[in-house]
């Protein structure tokens, strides 16, 4: 269920709290191949299914940056910042790829609002996303994203 946030007061009330969890998403070889085409990263561990079967992973793995690039999808399933004139991705504080995502795995994200800070042009929100792999204890990714809510 998506949490709708319409006011600064609602946003500040969620500071320091987990906002929610996204739906599970299955990572497919097609997604990985399309990401390889888009980025030019054709490393064999991502795209050569036969060679990857003999690797320590037993199959192809998603690019770490593919997993990171799914944060907007996961975030939209978790919360809706229905405030301000625009929401801009300002960057990331920390990004850690802590576990490979095997093709065919299901992943989802948890989001926590670490900080909500008023700035000259609006509000700066730092959100930690933890991307989990179904059935695996250690997450695939932990990233702190900074969003600017303008106006």
Automatic annotation (TrEMBL):
What InterPro entries does its record include?
HotDog_dom_sf (IPR029069), MaoC-like_dom (IPR002539), NodN-like (IPR039375)
Q: Which organism is it from?
A: Marihabitans asiaticum
Report what the protein is called: Acyl dehydratase
Family that this chain belongs to:
Belongs to the enoyl-CoA hydratase/isomerase family.
The record's annotation in Pfam families points to: MaoC_dehydratas
Q: Which residues form the MaoC-like domain?
A: 15-131
Q: Enumerate the CDD domains for this protein.
A: NodN
Xref: Gene3D superfamilies? Hotdog Thioesterase
